[in-house]
Amino acid sequence: MDSDLVRRAGQGDRSAFGLLYERYARVVHGIILARVAPEDAEDLVQDVFIVVMRRLPNLRAPEAFPGWIATIARNRAADHYRTRRGQSEPLSDRLPGTQSAGARLEAHRILDCIRSLPEAYRETLVLRLVEEFTGPEIAERTGLTTESVRVNLCRGMKLLREKLGAGSK
Q1: 34: closest CA among 136, 132, 111, 107?
Q2: Which of 137, 123, 145 is nearest to 29 (CA)?
Q3: Could you tell me the domains of the chain?
Q4: CA nearest 98: which of 109, 89, 88, 87?
């Protein structure tokens, strides 16, 4: 199904591109959020889709789209990080779904812990815990195998629990 959308979007079909955006925007957001401050994530998501729109006609294997867009998102976040190196990146006071000051502080603490984990764990944890994708959905939309996602989630959650436990002592 995605391969057909990718082909059509690459040929200039705007509605197909819109459907790809709807299907992958949260994945791109999660990948980026695992690497940059929340207040920068939305703009970077838009940047990724601009790059995708420009480069999509040159994508030779439409079935490679999930891994391809995930790579573009990772690279855009890395570029952003390099340009901001040396500048402080405090977390925003406004994280989605948090209302009270206490909940915001806890969300900040957890996101900070997630962002301190190795990259593979960061990404899968943000996609699972923030974007609320299932393991198979993460695999399908990032190009990772289901087993890799399962292992990354399991190991990442173990590390996250350890970090959160150590931070509360």
Answers
A1: 111
A2: 123
A3: 1-89 (1.10.1740.10), 99-169 (1.10.10.10)
A4: 109
